[in-house]
Amino acid sequence: MSESAPLGRAQLDALLAQMARVRTLVLGDVMLDTFIWGRADRVSPEAPVLVVRAERDSQMPGGAGNVVRCLRALGAQVGVAGVVGDDADGATLARLLAEDGADPLHLLPAADRPTTVKTRILAGGQQVVRVDRELAQPLPADLSAQLDALLRPALTGCQGLLLSDYDKGVLQPALIDRVLALAAELGVRVAVNAKPHLAGHYGRVDLLTVNRVEAEAILDRRLPTLDDVAAGARDLAARLEPRHTLITLGPEGAMLLAHDGEPQLVPALPVQVYDVAGAGDTTVAAAHLALCAGAEPRAAIEVAMRAAAVVVRKRSVATASPDEILALAEE
Questions:
Q1: Where are the alpha helices (DSSP H) in 112-260?
Q2: Which of 35, 106, 117, 176 would suit a FRET pair with 97, their CA atoms being 20 to 30 Å apart?
Q3: pLDDT tens for residues 33-84?
């Protein structure tokens, strides 16, 4: 594994400014995250479960929608394409994405499937249970064709495309093949947060991102040590031929294999961790923007690690702004 000098303060400032000028499209599984916040001070007499007294509710975009939030927090111009249900939750999700500054919205309403909603019930700041409402099946052919027809106008003028796969059915082989061909035609850089069962269709993208567990599933073997992870990155690159391969490792950082180099460990910043929710989305969003802004691969992943460090210091699903990343660099 090789090493290189970390980003200086001036380099980081300049790169973040360039990232804010990028226009990108997010295509994938948008969701609505709902939170019910309350207190639990007794056990139910009906069953051995806590009784949560609800005090307030909140909602935010989730899944690919959270990737949009991460990109917008970094200042990028972001369009989003996906499918929602023809229901009140779909309308709420579209409104929240618009309020976050996503533009344009290419959200197709589906009459035969609900908006994916993940409802988390929290007591004293701790999650008690999560309830999912979804139909995790491939899109019907007619709806996939409608989405396909939106892609050329949606990608026109973009420097980047981020495929956010949460395995809910929007990203399927035929659509992936077509959008990658279109991105190549338009000269658009592509990043993907890949799920294992479709990984073979994400070959030759600019940035392939998986976590350690996903890498193990694709390769069908364990990667217990950093040397194993480095070897796994080489094998993923040989099999799928992305320009850059990134395996995220939680508190250990991330393993980067650029197309013209050796695996590099980019360490995570040593910060107090309160909540890791959203860190993966932040990592791929920041790395994608940095590469689109012309950063060298190591610099792109370093700024992504800095953004993730900002996020894990916050509670619940959070994002990182350029000012927060720069403030962390001063600590």
A1: 141-155, 173-186, 212-219, 226-240
A2: 176
A3: 999 999 998 999 999 999 999 999 999 999 999 999 999 999 999 999 999 9
Catalytic residue among 33, 89, 165, 281: 281
Furthest-apart CA atoms within the chain: distance in Å: 63
**Residue 99: Cβ within 10 Å count:** 10
Question: Domain total for the chain?
Answer: 1
294 — phi, psi (to 5°)?
95, 10
Tokens 């994405």 locate to 97
pTM above 0.90, yes or no: yes
Question: Which domain range does residue 22 map to?
Answer: 9-33+61-124+134-330
281 tagged catalytic: yes
Per residue in 97-132, pLDDT (tens digit) is 999 999 999 999 999 999 999 999 999 888 899 999
User: CATH number, domain at 263?
Assistant: 3.40.1190.20
Residue recorded with tokens 């799928």: 240
3-state secondary structure of 279: helix
